[in-house]
Design a protein that fits this description.
CATH class of the largest domain: Alpha Beta
CATH topology of the largest domain: Nucleotidyltransferase, domain 5
Low-confidence stretches: 138-150, 161-172, 360-387
Mean pLDDT: 84
Number of domains: 3
Shape: globular
Order of helices and strands: HEHHEEEHEEEHEHHEHEHEHEEHH
Number of strands: 13
Strand content: 15-25%
Number of helices: 12
CATH architecture of the largest domain: 2-Layer Sandwich
């Protein structure tokens, strides 16, 4: 996952830096007061460490402001002595709360949540038009979208022959007037779908949401899909049970939408795991282990840095900073999807004869690393065999 917004916060800014990660979930008045209490403790720690009062006051004003997101969420703030460099709403609480005043911003808690950073476009369509709901993980409303499609938007095609005739009795026989009227109705539906598709195609091209959900009238869905570009269709998932203007008011639909997002996260995890597994099998395109990853980062070869949350090497902050500053993507891969050697690996932009070898049998002289790369092997590694021999 590419993170240009994080690079701009890390480069060309002088330290020291203030880092704050806080669970800001407010489900009731008690939870709200607990957020304030934890922040007061954090603020006192940072002040003792030397953080300026003016920047602490600015961070406090932002942190204690209620965001539009509901449910469980968190906040991440990076600042230096002059200004706030990064202020993000997190889609879920951070795995650990943290405040730090030091020479380098702490980015691991933020990047541990990359799987949950799913931007999404929900389209509720009927035969007159559609409602568009664009959501991003750091700002669920996207109201600051400069392209004008950030907040919830309604699109009406403007063609109002929407209902076919239902003649009965003596007038029930079909004639040229009925056929002509129904043809105009079909034409209205198609033109309305074209108007919606034009806006959706533009929005996806500009904002590039990870996934597009489509729900509503079945006939209108089919007409719309016929007009959507390939880059939209590649992201498209259809959801049942939605109605334009009403879907998000239904708890059952909201749960179906949440499950669809979870399914997308799981599928993305498997895609990264399979890509790493496939490149390892070809002995090209990836390396694993902290030593080799540090080397290819230094050479600017990394396209995507992968790490297992909870199993990160000691130098993970250094690796993450180097990845961001060299325009590499970063993704937190659950170790149930794939257990990485040393908890870290890299997918490469390019490699050559000097790139560290990354075959399953030659990751290094450490057999434990071989086991980590291919955890399904049945044989016992030489190291384990030697330990068993000593114990027997």
């Amino acid at each position: 996952m590419k993170l240009p917004w994080l690079k701009s916060a890390l480069e060309n800014n002088d330290g020291p830096f203030l880092t704050v990660y806080l669970d800001t979930t407010r489900t009731d008045p008690t939870a709200a007061s607990e957020v304030e209490s934890r922040w007061e403790q954090f603020r006192g720690q940072a002040a003792k460490a030397g953080a300026p009062e003016n920047i602490l006051a600015e961070v406090e004003e932002s942190l204690l402001r209620q965001p539009s997101i509901g449910g469980r969420h968190g906040r991440a703030v990076l600042a230096n002595a002059d200004r706030i460099l990064l202020d993000r709403v997190l889609p879920v609480p951070p795995q650990q709360e943290l405040i730090d005043w030091g020479e380098r911003p702490v980015v691991l808690p933020l990047l541990q949540l990359t799987p949950h950073a799913v931007s999404q476009l929900l389209i509720e369509v009927d035969r007159a038009g559609a409602d568009l709901h664009l959501r991003a993980p750091e700002d669920p409303d996207l109201t600051k979208n400069v392209h004008g499609r950030g907040e919830d938007t309604s699109i009406d095609g403007g063609h109002d022959e929407l209902h076919k005739s239902r003649a009965t009795g003596a007038d029930s026989g079909r004639g040229w007037r009925t056929d002509n009227f129904e043809a105009r109705v079909e034409d209205s539906w198609e033109r309305n779908a074209e108007a919606v598709a034009e806006q959706v195609n533009k929005l996806v091209r500009e904002r590039k949401p990870h996934v597009v959900f489509l729900t509503g009238d079945v006939r209108a869905e089919a007409l719309l899909k016929a007009e959507l570009h390939k880059d939209v269709l590649d992201r498209l998932k259809e959801l049942s049970g939605g109605t334009r203007g009403l879907s998000l008011e239904r708890a059952s639909f909201r749960e179906e939408l949440a499950q669809a997002v979870r399914d997308h996260v799981d599928a993305t995890q498997q895609e990264y795991a399979e890509k790493f597994r496939e490149t390892q099998g070809r002995d090209t395109g990836s390396v694993a282990g902290s030593f080799h990853v540090a080397e290819v980062l230094r050479r600017g070869q990394v396209d995507e840095l992968l790490f297992n949350p909870g199993r990160e090497p000691e130098n993970i902050e250094e690796l993450l900073h180097q990845a961001i500053l060299t325009d590499a993507g970063v993704y937190a891969l659950d170790d149930e999807a794939f257990s990485l050697p040393d908890g870290v690996a890299a997918l490469l932009r390019w490699d050559d004869e000097t790139t560290p070898s990354n075959t399953l049998s030659s990751m290094s002289g450490d057999p434990a690393r071989r086991d980590a790369v291919d955890p399904e092997r049945d044989e016992v590694s030489p190291r384990v065999a030697e330990e068993q021999k000593l114990l027997s």
